[in-house]
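Quick one: structure tokens for this chain, please?
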Amino acid sequence: MTLIHREPPRRGAILAGCFVSALVVAFVLLAAMVLAFRADRDAARYPGATEVTSHSNYQGLPTQIRWDNSYFTTDNFTDVYNWYSLTFDLGAESRALERCIELDGPVRRLLTVQTVNVLICGRDEGQFVYVTRTTALALPGR
């Protein structure tokens, strides 16, 4: 009777497998973060609006991100106002100046506080919308 002798798995192969698995998990988490950032940034765009300018300020990383965007739409001023007011739960306007209305307020989500400022200016050709959103971690004592 012959016994089959099997060698135990090599330690190097196990470590290499763990390393590759860790890289895959890190890549998936990074991709999920990028997609979440992109979705959050696009959430400020009024449906069908054309982006005029876009600026990101990552100076406050890792605890804060600021996005400044401006859009143009030919939709009715009231529709644009209502969409931003309801989407970001901003309530009534905080200030009005001639044909511009400003909405602002904080929005709490999970462990973050997002400060949203929307300026809607009506023109004969359509509405210009300027959106500034700052998302910061809701750290204790803040």
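The mean pLDDT is 85.
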